[in-house]
Predict the 3D structure of the following.
Amino acid sequence: MSRALGDDWTLPLLDDRNRAWFTSGRLRIQRCEACEAWQHPPEDVCGSCQGTRLRFDECGETGRVESFVVVHRAVHPKLEASVPYAVALVSLDGAQGVQVLGNVLNRAPDALAIGQPVRVVFETVPDPEGGHTLHIPQWEAIES
Ligand SMILES: [Zn+2]
């Protein structure tokens, strides 16, 4: 198994809004050209000023665990071998106000803590249906 939740787990369906997130191999977050606000997940309109000129900017590679939940019961048969696992809410150091979800790969769920500094790592996964290579953002705990 090379992916956090198993190699059989569902892959994202790409569109113009999420392509940068799942294929760039970098943390690229949507940003408003008018007011410079960051937002994630991407939308057609800026949530701060309703501007419609949006771009994707890199925001560095680190963040902090704001919260997490430990999943003990598989919600899908394909996840039975993965439990227990933690789903972490990570605030991005380089994108003010943005929080993203992911798994912390190098910490057991019972060793994870709120405030833990993390660095992005990418699960590289070929997408046989879409013909793309995905780089799915995940997290590793780093020492503070
Ligand atoms: Zn804006």
Residues 15 and 111 are 36 Å apart (CA to CA). The pocket of zinc ion is lined by residues 32, 34-35, 37, 46, 48-49, 51 (CB under 6 Å). The two ends are 29 Å apart (CA to CA). The longest strand covers residues 117-127.
